[in-house]
Amino acid sequence: MSAAQDHKDLRVGVIGLGFAGSTHLDAFTSLEGATVVALAGQEPARLDELGTSRGVPHLYADWQDLVARDDLDIVSIGVPNDLHHPIAMAALQSGKHVFCEKPLATTGDLAAEMVAAAKAADRVLEVAYNHRRRADVSFLGSTSPTIRSVTSTTRGPAGSGAPGSRGSAPGSRARRPPVADP
Asked: Contact, 83 vs 64, CB < 8 A?
């Protein structure tokens, strides 16, 4: 049994110190069943501030050092878009689930590589689409094939307990709801 399986809570490493990263950090910190054990970012003062105020024990200036940890279950990515692909690929290839801020990648080909890596590793690759599991969106998804295809892109239904079933970071807010194609 790995170190990551010796405990009850899922162990999370968050990468990013800006709005997205700190939103992911606060969401996972407040989430029962998850423990943020590592935080990475390149602004030393902000890293220390967030790590200290949120009680994160392991702080890294380099995301590669966080991903290299063998005791993490989830890597949460809240960094500039061009870094989503390399971080997610490294995390998936090392056996971790990935929660990624939107957009998933900067191109469709890079996103497809990430999806293929998640499938090959049997890991969850979740994108922070904040409204995906709202009751009204779920209802619309049950009545509209277009919306259903948008809302059924993850492995587990909301509340199922399956990896990826929590949806986007709890407490986070999207600026606009999902829009179905006409």
From this structure: no
Give the confidence band of 96 by pLDDT, cuts at 50, 70, 90. very high
Within 103-152, where are the H helices? 108-121, 135-143, 145-151
**Helical pair 108-121 and 84-93, crossing angle rounded to 10 deg:** 10
Task: Give the pTM.
Answer: 0.71
Residue 101, phi-psi category: left (phi > 0), alpha (psi -120 to 50), beta (remainder): beta
**33: which 2 tokens?**
């069943």
Contact 2, 72 (CB under 8 A): no
Domain count along the chain: 1
Digit-coded pLDDT (tens) for 127-136: 887 665 566 6
The CA dihedral of 43, 174, 65, 30, to the nearest 10 degrees, is 100
Q: The domain containing residue 49 runs over which residues? A: 7-151
Structure tokens at 79: 């960094």
Residues contacting 107, CB < 8 A, separation 6+: none
pLDDT one-digit tens code per residue, 68-80: 999 999 999 999 9
Interhelix angle 44-54/19-30, nearest 10 degrees: 20
CB count in 10 Å sphere of residue 44:
11
CATH number of residue 140's parent domain: 3.40.50.720
